[in-house]
Amino acid sequence: MNLQKEYWNKIYESILDKKLKYDPWLDKYENILMKSKDTPIIDLGCGFGNDTLYLKERKYEVISCDFSEKALRRLSNFIDNLNVKCFDMKDGLPFQDSSAKVIISDLSLHYFTWNETQDILKEIKRVLINEGTLICRVNSTRDMNYGAGQGIKIEENFYNIDGNLKRFFNESQLRELFREWDILYIMETEINRYNMSKIAWEISIKKM
């Protein structure tokens, strides 16, 4: 089994009964989200399911995606009739071309090599309609509480930390990664995650 998948399966198995709780970071994107009232929003790497819950409470249709079947099983225990897809982003996205208006990826795009990350972005662009939007958060290079600069270096700002692969981004790397997109919003922010302060980048980009 993929060691990353095994790690996350154990995490979700250990918190099966822990209730969902979200922070309102998506509030500022209401105008973007509203454009997808008639089309399911893809929650890519939904994990704990916080953003799925946020969207479902506001009557959006959501496709909740993760490579951990334990995460999706846990989430289905809290939300009825949930539309889920289990897959590894490195294998591509199982969606038709130009089939989504909005994709959300909250802390799920920073586990890959640079080339893999670029390939995943190409897949996201393929799935989005013209002028469709990706809203995401990723690790910052200042995220010291969660391993920035620690472990065995694989690539610049990409580390093996006790068998867990993690990437951390600075602004110049993000602007390079998204240079073929229209960057609507990019800001480094401090959030509370897993009971500790976390430094992350929050980004909204539009397919050109």
Automatic annotation (TrEMBL):
Transmembrane segments: none annotated. InterPro entries: Methyltransf_11 (IPR013216), METTL2/6/8-like (IPR026113), SAM-dependent_MTases_sf (IPR029063). Coiled coil: none annotated. GO terms for molecular function: catalytic activity, acting on a nucleic acid; S-adenosylmethionine-dependent methyltransferase activity. Gene3D superfamilies: Vaccinia Virus protein VP39. Keywords: Methyltransferase, Transferase, Ubiquinone. The keyword Transferase applies. Residues 43-136 form the Methyltransferase type domain. GO terms for biological process: methylation. SUPFAM superfamilies: S-adenosyl-L-methionine-dependent methyltransferases (SSF53335). It comes from the Bacteria. This is Methylase involved in ubiquinone/menaquinone biosynthesis. It comes from Clostridium pasteurianum BC1.
